[in-house]
Amino acid sequence: MLNTLSGRFLLLTTVFVMLAEVLIFVPSVARFREDYLELRLERAQIASLALLASETLDADLETELLENAGVYNVVLRRDEVRQLALSSPIPEPIHATYDLRGASALQLIRDAVGTLLDPDERIIRVIGDPVQQGGLLIEVTMDQAPLRAEMLDYGLRILILSAVISVVTAALLFAAVQAFLVTPIKRVVAQIQSYADAPEDARRIIAPRAGLRELHEAETALQAMETQLTSALRQKDRLAQLGSGVAKVSHDLRNILTSAQLFADRLESSEDPLVKRMAPKLVGSISRAVSLCESTLAFGRAEEPPPQLARLPLPALVAEVLEAERLAAGEEAEIAFVDEVPPGLVLRADAEQLYRVLSNLVRNARQAILAQGGGGRVTVSAREDEDAWWIFVADTGPGLPPKAREHLFRAFRGGVAKGGSGLGLAIAAELVRGHGGRLELARTDATGTEFAICLPRNAPKPLLG
Question: Which reaction does it catalyse (predicted)?
Fold first, then answer.
């Protein structure tokens, strides 16, 4: 019971109601004690009036008047000189004196608590104002035990009533919490369990219908999360199917490229100067294509292979990437490929994977410039600091559209060029993450776009167990 929300709420409600009743109980008992004492003063004043009406009273009548008033003696001061008194023997000395004239609420509460906590037989003196302006003051001596018994009886009745009120209030609140909070939460939990059984089924996505604002907001957030998750699962399924198809194509394409590589090797023995100059580049391109096919096959089986880190001269790699893109752009395209990498810059990376990253970024930049129908410039620059190597690929294209920026680095959703799949940026980001770095969009506006590659210089520190 206490492990449920409604059970704990019921317990807390009971405790808080009882606490409130206790805070009411103490002043109530103090007020009851004050009324009890004032009633004794009033009865004592009435008894003393009998003495005023007759100069002498029979001893038995005086005793009866005192017993009816519940006191041992009475002193009524009507002026500064004359006093009227009824008296009888006091069994023991007076323990305390209580003056009700002008007593503060705090003092009355303190005296009431003291009376409740004192179980001994005590004789007390009580002083108060006479009723109907019947004198200056009235003073009585009485037993404390009957007062304490009456206070305990009154307090017990208050506690019983408080307990009944607490139980009824807690039951009503329990029912309200069950109806307005627990039941809607259980409905949401049941929907989550239903969605978990078949997250690909869009019909199981929750439809917000809670009346409470907080629960409605929670259901709305859950609906957005389930919608994104369903979309992501469908996307992963399409990627899995695509990966299977690409793996099959890569397998056959690798065999074809291997044969082409054998023929290209023979071109290196040609005496033609142009062939001699172009043959190594052709062989390198075919070798890289074969390597890419093998990596694609590995990706289709599991994931991108881990990078083989080694010291790598960056200027040579960038020059190779830019030269390949110049050939792809052709002489008619008015695109300038600018290499601003500092000479002698060496970093630690996987040469093949970094080539693929830069090739994807430079190719995207070239395509963006061609898409706007004019000339432009693609610039590759780099720098290093104490923590990382930074490589920048910038272009003077039209900038990324909002949709591409929203889903950047996500396959099939972050395509930049019209009709593009977005796989290039997704693959590049994954390869950079494999190096422990990050690929990010540094700038995009009407003047162009710039991507930044950050490769850490130091390996991450191992976690201490």
Answer: ATP + protein L-histidine = ADP + protein N-phospho-L-histidine
